[in-house]
Amino acid sequence: MAAITSSPLTGYRVLVTRARSQAGALTDRLQRLGATVVELPSIEIAPADPEPLDSAICNVTRYDWIVFTSVNGVDAFLNRLSVHTQDAVSMSRVRIAAIGTATAQRLLDAGFNVDLMPDQFIAESVVAALASRNIDGQRILLPQAEIARDTVAEGLRRAGAIVDVVVAYRTILPDDYDSDHVQRLIAGVDVITFASPSSVRNMLVMADGRLPGVPVVCIGPVTANAASDAGLPVAGVADIYTTEGLVDAVVQFVERVEKGVPVGRHP
């Protein structure tokens, strides 16, 4: 990742659509680079029925691996684990896989080892990394969002694993938005950032389906595909699927604008 040492975003207004509880790091980094940030959360993180996750935690020793695909999944798991303190010690017997540095760091901060993190922070990569370790017949716990793709679960099953998918949290549409206000905010920015497919879908709902042609920059290819499928002009995709990578992609977008390079679609 290239070092960014100046203020390349001065004069640009950037819309951040992450959940309010998670927007801080992205907003801070953009502001340090000179951007004027407009926060418009298009998702909220909500709890799921705790019983399935509680049951999995109480029987955690039956699993060979737990696979975490997001920070939200880690937070939901740790929240329920705190209720079952007698089972926390049993976690040391289970190997842990994490997609992405932020997800891994949240686990490390909580005192857990991370045994596997793929080179690319996407579902397909964690499946390949686990499959290379011969998981045939092994039991894997997968705590994830209610609307998560089934890529990880199905890929692990094809590799011979027994996978228990547990809904750990839900991503929902905020209920305090006004479509006219949303459209006015969007019309006043230079670029929109998206960090998940659900944030794309929800923003379309919040804007009553009437999004202007503001360029969008996405955290990774899955999110970019969702935006492109919705007809949005994807002008940048992070090379590394992290908050830092997303910021770098915004900077690269602005650099192309400054050079007069067409940016209506990601090259």
Explain what the structure shows:
The protein has about 270 residues and is of the alpha/beta class. The protein folds into two domains: about 15-45 and about 175-260, Rossmann fold, CATH 3.40.50.10090; about 45-170, Rossmann fold, CATH 3.40.50. It is about 35% helix and about 20% strand. The chain is built from ten helices and ten strands. The protein has helices spanning about 25-30, 50-60, 70-80, 100-110, 125-130, 150-160, 180-185, 195-205, 220-230, 245-260; strands at about 15, 35-40, 45, 65-70, 95-100, 140-145, 160-170, 190-195, 215-220, 235. The strands form two sheets. A five-stranded parallel sheet has the order 2-1-8-9-10, with helices on both faces. The protein has a five-stranded mixed sheet with strand order 3-7-6-4-5. Strand 9, helix 9 (about 220-230) and strand 10 form a beta-alpha-beta unit. Helix 8 runs parallel beside helix 9. The chain is elongated and about 55 Å long. The relative contact order is 0.16. The model has no long low-confidence stretch (mean pLDDT about 90).
